[in-house]
Amino acid sequence: MEVNPYAVFVFKRKVKTMRGLLKGELKEEKNFFKTLSLKKVKTLNDLAKQNNLILRGLKAFSILNGKVQYPFNINNNEYIFEITEYSYKPYSIILRLVSQDIITIFREMNYDLPIATVLLNNNSKIIDVNPQFENLFGFKGNEIIGKDLNELIVPKNELKDGYSLDNIAKDTGYVRVERKRLTKNGREIPVLVSGSPLKIGEKTIGIIGVYEDIRDIKKVQEALYYQATHDVLTGLPNRYLLEDRFNIEKARADRLGSKVALFFVDINRFKDINDTYGHDIGDRVIKYVAHKLLSSVRSTDSVVRFGGDEFVIVFDEVKEIEDIVSIAMKVVDAFSLPFKFDEYTIDVGINVGIAIYPDDSATLEELLRKGDIAMYEAKVMGTNNFVFYSKEIEEERLKTLSDLKARDIMFRLVFEKSPLPQIIIDDEFRVLRVNESFKKVFKIDLRKIYGKKLVEVEGFEKLLEFLQKDMTSKEIEISSVKFCKGMYNLKYSISCLKSLGRTYYLIVFKEVWESGSE
């Protein structure tokens, strides 16, 4: 690329006056004197004597103490004559002739930039491009000069937007906007586009367009978005994406006069699976359930991992309740066979609560709440059941919760505050809970007994023998039980409680006295 003519003059120290300026000595030059048809001289003073325009420019520079530019005509060629400080050399100034040829101006400003730029005329025709533009879009400059930029790189459905951006750039310039543009082979790439007018004086002679490649940035953004909106274990959308999916289906249902069915799905006894087989198998069960749910629905339906062992499915364009029943039957039937992994065979079942838009509610939050209520009703019925939400079910649930709260209060009064030692075990003789009196009387580390079977607790082997023989006696007395380094005589009673298909036993030690010690 041809360099604009220039001459550099240096000084021994920083100068502020015209007299000091004229003492400047020539350091280097490139076609400056030749272009101006002047005799090559060593000082600014000698140069100013040859050309009155240069003398006036130097006077203006000394007064303004800053850059000076003005038109300069040489043999009918238009230039801008520029005088400014030369940053590459201390105590120096540069006198430069800048061609007003549009291509020369563009190349001097843009050829070394690390981003793609294009020079257009006022009708969006390509005048020149820099090397980075060629690298980004795959076009060679000589094959696209004179062609309409928008017809080359703007997708057809966005042509109007492309011309609109050109008009804005020509008038005022604009901030960067993100767009898709086409490469030579027709591939769409994301870029940041900006544009500004190219002016000489007050006249706009063209447009400079700038394109920044943001493919790597978009990949990072998409990865972060995916991580934020999808479950890591299953790859399903998570609860943060659920609202978007629901709103889309809700809007479609409003247009078509249809319904949206929301299934609230829970894995039956998942905690037991985790506790029995470990969390690794538990994760595999979660992935198995996600796969089964996906294979049971249409590609247009949304399966979401809501959290833990809960999933939500959103079904669109539902017109009849019978359609929802058919879908629900297909979903639960998918779990009729057990899950097999290596040497494990695990019965994996689900329960489904169903809420319908707009019948049950107009908001996602309410539909989820009501689907959850219906799901718990299905769970009471067993495994692989589905239940539609109804007002009656919710009222019954509220009554049950109220009863449970009353029972909990009574339990705390009778069990926790009782002066008699008490312990609760399940039908597998596993210790579930003890009260404060039990702790004080037996002085035992609770970490050693909670969750353990009686046979695993030192001193309770003999108690277990009696329990296994008779779980119905009102009152039993045993003697010489070794417990916590002490020997005790015990008198206790057993009460039976059944809840949600399981049996629990409350053991009350009515009398405890030491029979001796080690």
Automatic annotation (TrEMBL):
SMART domains named among the record's database cross-references: GGDEF, PAS
Gene3D superfamilies: 3.30.70.270, PAS domain
Record-annotated GGDEF domain positions: 258-391
InterPro entries: DGC-Regulatory_Protein, GGDEF_dom, Nucleotide_cyclase, PAS, PAS-assoc_C, PAS-like_dom_sf, Rev_trsase/Diguanyl_cyclase
Residue ranges of every copy of the PAC domain listed in the record: 175-226
Pfam families xref list: GGDEF (PF00990), PAS_8 (PF13188), PAS_9 (PF13426)
Domain PAS: 118-157
NCBIfam families (alphabetical): GGDEF, sensory_box
Protein name per the record: Signaling protein
